[in-house]
Amino acid sequence: MNPLREKPARSGTGAARWLLGSALGGYLLWVIFPMVWVAYSSFKDDAAITQDPLALPEWAGVDGAAYGRAWRDAGLGEYFLNSAMVTTSSVALILLFGSMAAYALARFYHPLGRFTHGLFLAGLMVPAQLAMVPLFFELRAMGLLESRWGLVLVYTANGLPFAIFILTGFFRSLPRALYEAAVVDGCSESQAFWRVMLPLARPGLVTVAIFQFIGVWKEYFFAFMLTGGGAEKTLPLGLANLAITAQYQGDQARLFAGIVIVTVPILAIYVFLQGHLVRGITAGAVKG
Hints:
The protein has helices spanning 11-41, 46-51, 65-73, 76-107, 113-122, 132-142, 148-173, 176-184, 189-200, 202-217, 221-227, 235-249, 252-284. It is mainly α. It is globular, with a radius of gyration of 25 Å.
């Protein structure tokens, strides 16, 4: 009997794969269908939505006016700009300070290094809502209450523990020989970080950026508690107001259009950067 001869595949393997594929396909449809339904319902009028909610819009009856009503009348255009400013500023500051802190904790020894790293990680275990009262009084004392920059500071502080957790493991996975080669070539500590180590950490930075962008973009609690009812409101607050008004005005198409406006940037960011996300997670999980 030839020991190198391949064994015939068991019949159960194909059935198991078919069942697994069917389960995953069903779960995919279960997740995607509500999003698709909301998207095409935003092009229908309220009468069509009420009569047959699941029916596709007729080509002659396709109407994108709901997006105009959501963008202008409901004020989502202004709220969109506020969310874009707050989110991009917060993510940029999180990446800047998080990468510098993570690099220092990963590359340099200090007697309090482990304690400092553990202190940052402790921030992941503390519910953010517990800090609301001191945050309120601190922002009021600084004159940043009900302002976009106050939200940026809160989101930055809230996102740093996660960023440091991911990037510390990623910097530890990079070969130390690259840092030593940069120093031998005449780079200072700061030049080695900015020119050599930080570009190599791009997958980890993209991973942090995706998670923080999604988290800040859809965040509601801090925005509701710290901005009040002024013009600094972000998109989740505007969508909540739109849901209330649509319920009383009977304009469901405008509500669906608002949901699409909020969701599309998150989907675009994730689809565009999903390859970097997978590489960043796997690279940061391996210690060099």
